């Protein structure tokens, strides 16, 4: 009883107020059990709604004594129940109270108490556990430490409406990871909780519903099971639909919509099911309306964004439902200008939710505009939309910045918007700023957006180039995150497309050949593809090809050889053969291939490959090698003659001849064109 | 209710069972959607009007299908048709749908008074399919929703509570299109291109959009508004008012013990003294037991001059007394009867009828067939219940405003005095009856008042009864089985007494005519009463309904009200006054086009 010994020490430093509190604690030590009981009851009455009293009693060591009395088999069941009630009351106080209680190992003690047959005591323990577990300071893992706890809680669900309410509330707060979902699922959470959805008690129905929403979230197994569950001969999805009826409490509508959303996203309900199209989606749109509380509007918008993210048809329906696009513009009007003067409380409330509202709106806009060009247009035409995104990009809240850049990214998929609103609002500026210093998740979205802004038709490309973006992108290619490496190299690839010699030179210089070749052996095939793409773009027009090849020819040829020999996808090989074809198009660069018998053998191999794409690319390469330059000088002329002869010797003509009979028309044409060069 | 207004082409197909089925479904759906609408006053749109249409418009399929038959070259060729009736405000929320069966080049749909191009005329509103714009009283549209085409179902919802409108496309709400709408809008559709065909659904089929869900939201909103109506500091005042209402109601109907107990519990005072309440209670018991002669005597004894000053009431009582004589229940004939009653108190322990409140009867019917009555409280339809299920009211204290909605009448053949005694449940010829109203109630239904007595002879009665076919049928069969019933109890002397009394009654009528001039109501009353004698079995004759004990209630409440009035007490209890006022208020709201009336119906709150 270490705590008890400490108590007198502590009291000496406490104010006089604690004297009365101390009296309550002292009475817990009375030898007469009847007096102890009365003491606990008095303590219960003293702490209700009195946070200071609660803190005092905790400091004075009431908790260990109460826990001791609660655990003692010799205590009367009444005393044990009263102890649990007082502990529950203490837990209702501040977060510090909860911490102290958890530190005193209240959770195992209360969980142990649940084994007692006395229902009143069980309910008191559960109420206290509920209060402790719903606090953010309590580690949820404590519920799962003892594997017998969950099955026992399941078995207590049938005891009373109170046990149902508390247990389901504990579950819904303590189910945070897929592992938790699996544990609860494996212990029959669905079968045990489903009947509670039609409980006569609203609280029980509501907590059961919340349980299902956390269980189904991103969980295919749970969702697939849920669709087949019957409650009183009614399908669970229909029960949820009824809970979404407009005369139901908003909380219930919203949570039921979440359940259906999660089930839909997990693939358990089709996106064109009427319960999604005609019920869940409109319900979530309603949650975004001005009449709802700010919290509800945030949750509604986020859930809706999640629901329709992968489905363009849902996006189209949502975009015309109840003026949703215009409705979302209201999310940016907090704190409203009037509230500052008239109502301080309101201002405080507004401020608290302003960030959440903005990020939710950006998320929903991002989801709405991710596929359909008309919707993107509608969004950008919403009042001050682009300005809002631009300022959102530089907000202090990371959540808002991320959502804003997601929204921008979604809109940047539109060629028209890139040409117009994006340029008009110089979105590249804040975007560049964002890229300088941001968490990885923001960087991924921002750099991905930048890729689109660097497309050759984007008017923003020029100013971005001038802002020194190359260094930044090159540094991204060195990131540990594959997504960032892809985006970095992708942006460079877009930048190099049809770029002038200066830009290309800069890219090569900034990236460095070493890094370039490191990227060519990147484990991520996306990175490899985009790097090959960059190479191909660098090796475009003839003078560029010769220039790049004259300085980096040896390494490039090595890398190409390696890739063609390695285990890579068809796409990678095709891209590599295209690079070879580009090299073959150079004046001097050609020789690098002609003098490399190994490469020539490889080309020959791919011309006879079973995959038409690879055959095409390889044939293209040969075609370039044997090409007669019309404007060429005499030696060049003789050069092509020499090459033609050499290739004939190597058997390429026979292959070309065969290919003219190919079933693929493109391949056939390509081969015929090449053959004509010999006849010329 | 079934005012089938202008179903032109529909009548051609009346023999068609499919059509009849659709018709039935339409009526059911409209009744469910718009329970507050009184179609006698404001019929609901059920089809397009063949009269209010442009010549380019063709109608078919019971005037539900519209096709375009003009040239369709320019806007001048646009044509429209509107529904047979405007949207009644009492709908609260009104909805109809149009399915685009075939789209011409472009299609217009809207809601408005008739005009050449929908939405372009003054006070017209529309949503156009070709560009998705909304048009409001002008030629220039506002971007509103998506375009629509063949196969789409476009719906239009008019909210008459906040005077807004929104459209739906394939069951999805497109959001508010117009605000501040004027009243009396017609559902309308406009077409402009050859080949355009649209089908209307005014409720003939289930709607694609879940309008009932939308309605439920508004119902909840309005009920919430009522429940949260701020009373602020007047809370105490309200409580006193409510207590007074309950107390006066109990006193009015003579629930003496209950009233005393209530007064004690709430520490309030009862205005009327106990004796007075008990006297009224006694007289009411006598009337309700069919012993009208004794009731008249008692009234004359306890309230001298009352009936002299109310000759109409006296006449009514006497008429009733005659009927009761035929019935064999009045003491003047009963004393001759072998089977004179041991216990004549048909209301054991309970002085009066308990009120019947129901949730489904929208109107307050007067049960009286003669002079205007003021009766409040409504009757549940009691669809599946047989009278056997109604327990007799066992004690006065259990009779409150929510007491069981029926009363048992019993007759017994024990020989005893006329004194009131508790009814013995073991009497061997007990007959328990629960009766619905007669057909006269239907005829007179329009005469109901709102409980605000404008007519001096108005009387307040405690509960009314809705015409109920099932119950009536049971009643008849019950009476059939009861073959022992005979005129004046089958006693010759009694019959003679009755005839003599009839002559006296005739004399009284003539006297009244001389004094006050002819009275049609009296004449009819007398005729009806005398007609009973024309049939061998008065209980099963066209006027036999008069013998129904339920018919005693009107006269009972009239007498009760008259007594109270003579004592300078309110002739109707404030509770019923308030109820009547609220009912009338809601009906008035419908007339002044306040749509929320449809969700604030009084019977929603009566349980």
TrEMBL record, chain A:
Each ARM repeat, start to end: 61-97, 511-553
Cellular compartment(s): Cytoplasm; Nucleus
Domain of life: Eukaryota
GO biological process, one term: proteasome-mediated ubiquitin-dependent protein catabolic process
GO cellular component: cytoplasm; GID complex; nucleus
InterPro entries associated with the record: ARM-like, ARM-type_fold, Armadillo, ARMC8/Vid28
Keywords: Cytoplasm, Nucleus, Repeat
Main localization of the protein described in the UniProt heading: cytoplasm
Protein name (Swiss-Prot/TrEMBL): Armadillo repeat-containing protein 8
From TrEMBL, chain B:
Span of domain B30.2/SPRY: 26-207
A Pfam cross-reference name: SPRY
Domain of life: Eukaryota
Biased composition (Low complexity): 394-417
Biased composition (Polar residues): 340-353, 372-383, 418-429
Domain CTLH: 276-333
Region (Disordered): 339-439
Family indicated by similarity: Belongs to the RANBP9/10 family.
Name recorded for this polypeptide: RAN binding protein 10
